Structure formats: structure tokens, C-alpha cells
Amino acid sequence: MNGASSRTRVLIAMSGGVDSAVAAARLVDAGHDVVGVTLHLWDYPEAGAGSHGRCCAPEDQYDARRTADALGIPHYTFDRRELFAKTVVEPFVEAYLAGETPSPCAACNRGVKIAELVALADKLGAAQVATGHYARTGRTADGLPFIREGVDASKDQSYFLFTLGQDELKDLVFPVGGLTKAEVRELAARHQLATSAQ
Q1: Helix (H, G, I), strand (E, B), or coil: what is residue 147?
Q2: Is the N or C terminus of the chain more exposed, i.e. has fewer CB atoms within 10 Å?
């Protein structure tokens, strides 16, 4: 990934939730040239309001757009439903039926989210990719990146990212990894983000 301006352009994955909203706000506050991206991964045609979580729901695109507008950054949504079904859902069902205990979030982060975000960052001229995961990166004595736990042990998501290699990690940043959930909510309220109650 290569930056095209004196300010670092950072692509932020915006799920529509408070964590990615605050991650985006922190990047803006730090003076980065921030571009918001939401991946449309799944539809819930038969589900009623409030019957899903905060990941992959279509209405989360609206929340992500509202946050981007509030922060004054561009926002794009990319349809990756077919890739998600093929890479995550179908292997999950097969593994489950075979008596295994698959981790769809780990498969999604490696095979869909991070890979797609890195590719989109290249196209949009972003030097880094950021997410709202509660995780951090560290460096070995040789300077190689590795995943570290988030500061908030009760929210740590580093285990979802264990499959990522150094090629993905070298330009990946986690703006809320050093915060607790309470601190994230406080920052969301301070920025008057609509997702602050999540």
C-alpha cells in the first residue's frame, strides 16, 4: 500500500458499531486522511428488528454512513456477500455438520475482511488499514509484527485475528486496542456519535 499525500491516508473498516466509530474518530483527531469502508456481507430477510447482532447486518451500513458524515470523512460500501457465503458460511456449515467446532469470525477476518480491506486500501491509495478490534500489534526484536491482546481483557478480540500473517499485520492498526470499552463509550459521547450507547 502506498500513500499519495503528505498526510497518511488510512482506510478504516466501519461496521456501524461504536468501536469502529471511535476508531475512525481517533484517526481523524490524529490528523490522518481517513476513508471509511463498510463491507456488506450478509442479509437477514426473515429476521425482525433487533434480532441480529452488530456484525454483518445491512442496517449497520446506515449507521456507518452517519458516523462518517459526522466525522466529515468519505464512506464507501462494497458488496461482498457472495465472497462471504463461499469463504465463511459454506465452510462453517460443512465443518459443523462434520462434528467440528469452526470459528467463523477467524475465517471471516482472514479470508474476507482483512484481505478485502487491504486490496481496497491499495486501490484507494491508503497506506494503512484500521479496524475497531480490541487488539494491538507488537514487534519482535527483528521488527516483525505480531498480534497482542487488547488492553480490555473482557473485550479482547486478538484471538479472532490469529490467522493473519505478517503481510497483513505490517500495515494494520487498531485505534481502540489500547482502550477499555468504557473509555470507548466516553469518547463516542464526547464526539457526539450516534453509536455512543452501544
Answers
A1: strand
A2: C
